[in-house]
Specification:
Keywords: ATP-binding, Cell membrane, Membrane, Nucleotide-binding, Transport. This is ABC transporter, ATP-binding protein. InterPro entries: AAA+_ATPase (IPR003593), ABC_SmlMolc_Importer (IPR050093), ABC_transporter-like_ATP-bd (IPR003439), ABC_transporter-like_CS (IPR017871), P-loop_NTPase (IPR027417). It comes from Parasutterella excrementihominis YIT 11859. With 245 residues, the protein is an alpha/beta fold. The protein has 7 helices and 10 strands. The strands form 2 sheets. The chain has a 6-stranded mixed sheet, sandwiched between helices. Strand 7, helix 5 and strand 8 form a beta-alpha-beta unit. Helix 3 packs across helix 4. The longest helix is centred in the C-terminal third of the chain and has 18 residues. It binds adenosine-5'-triphosphate. Adenosine-5'-triphosphate binds next to strand 1, strand 2 and helix 1.
Length: 245
């Protein structure tokens, strides 16, 4: 099921060393079903807190989160999946075993089939038997991505999934991700510091500032997109201007 999300009036504060930090202050945002929303903002503005609140890893202090399907009907408990900056694979398990954990409710044959499909999708065939220590950084991150999507979540939350990679590996993975987005057909939130990545991948990019969405930009370009495409430039310029002001 493709699930949209409405966030309304979300507040979240932390007590830290005698002072109160409030990364989300009356925060509202609509995540449309099947679309990728990129979230940009200065370091410490509350991007990761937002993902944690959506996923329930952090409890919100106030506000409402509701999920709905493509017809606008309420969805009670959507399947969520998180992908982090580092792939967080279990080092004592093979790639196949790491992926298997996310779909352990499925029968063995179906599990194997799904693992093959998802590794094909992230362009990493024939690595099932390898341990994480035998993978390059880019390969490990692809496996992390595969683990995020293998259970076919309704909502995929991506916290800077490409940022720890070197420029070449990151660009290749971003381009590959752009190509598989349609096949995934999920609602996604992508936290990033990278304006070019936001323009390449998102349907909408939002800027977080002072606990709220300060700007929303619809990236109205067909997908998949390619780095170097001239049509990306005006959007990149707009986003850079927000960053610099
Ligand atoms: N568990 C916590 N306890 C206390 N303060 C916290 C906690 N989690 C986050 N914060 C504070 O909340 C603010 C927002 O943090 P958050 O990690 O959401 O920012 P971010 O925008 O994701 O930052 P970055 O871009 O650097 O990753 C920061 O000031 C941070 O110190």
């Amino acid at each position: 099921m493709v699930t949209g999300v409405t966030l309304k009036g979300i507040c979240k504060s932390f007590q830290s060393r005698g002072r109160v930090v409030s990364p989300l202050k009356d925060f509202s945002l609509n995540l449309e079903p099947g679309k990728l929303t990129a979230v940009l903002g200065k370091s410490g503005c509350g991007k990761t807190t937002l993902l944690k609140v959506i996923s329930g890893l952090e409890e919100r202090d106030a506000g409402e989160i509701s999920f709905f399907d493509e017809a606008g009907r309420p969805v009670s408990s959507p399947k969520l999946s998180l992908v982090f900056q580092d792939p967080r694979l279990l080092p004592w398990k093979t790639v196949e075993e790491n992926l298997s954990l996310a779909i352990r409710h499925l029968p063995e044959e179906e599990r194997k089939q799904r693992i093959r499909e998802v590794l094909e999708l992230v362009r990493l065939p024939e690595v099932e038997a390898l341990y994480p220590s035998e993978l390059s950084g880019g390969m490990a991150q692809r496996v992390g991505l595969a683990r995020g999507i293998i259970a076919k979540p309704d909502l995929l939350l991506l916290d800077e999934p490409f940022s720890a990679l070197d420029f070449m590996t990151r660009s290749r993975l971003q381009m590959d991700f752009s190509k598989i987005q349609d096949e995934l057909g999920m609602t996604m939130v992508l936290i990033t510091h990278d304006v070019n990545e936001a323009v390449l991948l998102s349907d909408k990019t939002v800027f977080l500032e002072e606990g709220k969405v300060k700007q929303e930009v619809n990236i109205a370009l067909p997908k998949p997109r390619r780095f170097g495409d001239q049509n990306l430039l005006p959007f990149q310029q707009t986003l850079f201007n927000f960053f610099l002001t």
